[in-house]
Structure formats: structure tokens, C-alpha cells
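Revision sheet: C-alpha cells.
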Amino acid sequence: IYMKFFISLLLMISFYSFAEDDHHNHDHGHDHTNKEDSKKDKKSLDAHVHGVSILNLVQDMKQLSFEFEMPGFDVVGFEYKAKKKEDIKKVRNALSILGDYKNMIYLPASANCKEEKNSAKVINEGSHSEFISQYLLSCEKISSIKSIEIKYFDSFQFSKELNINLIAKNKKITQTINKQDNIINVDGYFN
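Predicted:
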């Protein structure tokens, strides 16, 4: 009972931003310029190391919640708020990439997963920036997922490592992966 409460709590926290700003849910065809958020959205950016991002992955029944937290440098090659045309173009392109979970992860077709919600934004605070993307997927055959391929490294050349925090019905793990070792083994995790 405590585990179910803990998972529910994590899901509520993780998707607070979906409920808070629901107009960010979108088809992938419109402009993402309104995604540049200021420090009003987050009191303080967490300390981060360039090249190292975080993936929080939580299962709730047949739903999977993915949240990527990435230093701005890893995504666009700089940390400051984009003001020059070239930098603004890089941020827009990154948000477009982040707006489609298929650019970040690959799940087997046999799981029959459908995206329910997504969000992609950049937070700027002082001389630092962070990109955050979230995806909520419902999978009809979640137990058929034996591994998850992380495509994040293909999308962002400055990324080196991804620290993964996974909470599933049957297991809780933390691990670090990289471009050469980009598969998360989840055989038997999701039922």
C-alpha cells in the first residue's frame, strides 16, 4: 500500500506542470516560442553537470511517465537565454525535437503505446538554462516491454550520460547509460 501511495505521489508531482499549464499540450505542428519560461516556473535550477541529464520513469498500471531534465548546454550548446536569431532558432528546433517522444525513446510496437500528454520547455535562470520534456504514454500490453531504447543521444550531440531513476510495479532502479550503452533492460518490470 505504501508503494502505491508513493507512485501516485510521484505521478502527481511529475505531472503538476501538465495540469498547471495545459495549453502546452499540442500537436507537433505549431510554434514553440512560448515555451521559454522564466524563473517564476521554478525557484532555482538544480545544480547540473554539462553532458549529464536525468530521466525519471514511473509506471502506474498501464501508464508510463517519462521526464527528461537536461542542461541547456547538452541540448543547444549554450546555457544563456537565447536572444540572437541563430540561438532562438536552436531553441525552437530543440523544443520541436523534444515535443515528440519518438525522438527521445523507442518502445516496442507490441506494447501498443499511445501518447496521452506531452510537454517541452526551457527554463532560464541567470546564466543557466534547463530543458524539461515530459511524456505520458498508455500501453495496452505494457508487460511486453522488455527493453527501452533511449534515442536522446542521437537527438542531442552534446549529451554524454543519462542518469535514470525508474519506479515500476515490480522494481525500482537507478542506473547511468551513455550513447554506446543506450538500452534500459526492463524485462519483468512492468505487469
